[in-house]
Predict the 3D structure of the following.
Amino acid sequence: MTPKVARYLRDVAPATPCLVLDVDRVEENYRRLIAAMPLARIYYAVKANPAAPILERLTGLGSSFDAASLEEVEACLAAGARPEAISFGNTVKKESAIRTAYAAGVRMYAFDSEAELRKLARSAPGARVYCRILVGNDGAEWPLSRKFGCEIEMAKELMVQAGELGLDPYGISFHVGSQQTKTAAYEAAIGRVAMLFTDLKEAGVNLRMVNLGGGYPVRYRQEVPEIDDFGAAIMGAMAEHFGNALPEIVIEPGRFIVGDAGVVSSEVVLVSRKAKDDPVRWVYLDIGRFGGLAETEGEAIKYAFRTPHDGTADGPVTIAGPTCDSTDTLYEKSNYRLPLALDCGDRVELLATGAYVTSYASQSFNGFRPLAEHYV
Ligand SMILES: *Cc1c(COP(=O)(O)O)cnc(C)c1O
């Protein structure tokens, strides 16, 4: 938690549940990433946290943006981003959204299928397009598996076809999965992309860009490699496979830029046991899976907690949200322990919750309003 967030929580004590996010930390993370990968161009993955103060700060820093929907394209434009700085990165887009984005000046689009390529040829003529390939997601705590991307052989055919359809076959992208803890995932993917570059060159298509996607991790309960380790591994692999003919390098960080800038403040609603002598206490918070903690599904992302009683004797807990839905249980199997002194009404902070929380909150499931947001 940054000093600014701590001060805000102490001095203002905003109603819970809420996110308090330090926009200066967003800037620091952006600068750290540039320092780790000076040759890469940053396209912030807006879906991680689309709040205007974040988009505005990043626009001022010269960032570009990876938008998942027309609404995100419009949010970037409203924050002052130039349309040339926006990539429409979802491989699944309504044709009407493509048409509107194109009319607004957006000229870079992702695809991973022939049908999407044909939409782009019709509704974004001449635009730069990049094909997303399937790569391994091993090492990712929030894998994206097989939903996006196509096999290499198909990517090759589609990139040839892109040129024939009047589009600009610009590059290749991949995503190694979010909260990726292994630098080797990027190295392996870069090797595959380089082979595709060579094959396409032989087919007369000169690609100019590699999009390494996102995935750069944030520290939750466990240590993760430093961003400099990812930078060194990635630039090493690019040099190994491309030599002096380095293409333009694009990265699409989401979690890394905003994750550790934010803290969710919540209130303990109930502490109970299922039997008098049960050692495990159930701790119910005023935020849960439907309040924005979607990444606790399968206990994939394991947030760290801070309580007013830290440092005192603790015991095992199951942690759950406030709604009348049994899937609204956050952690049952991940060996969480919280202080025995924890009581109803205590404030509990969930650290590094600046990414993938506010935008996941449901409208009013069980009547609960989505969490408030404070950008400081
Ligand atoms: C979600 C996503 C990102 C951001 O991933 P992080 O793990 O948050 O860095 C980047 N690119 C694409 C295409 C995505 O879908």
About this structure: The chain has ten helices and 19 strands. The mean pLDDT is 97.
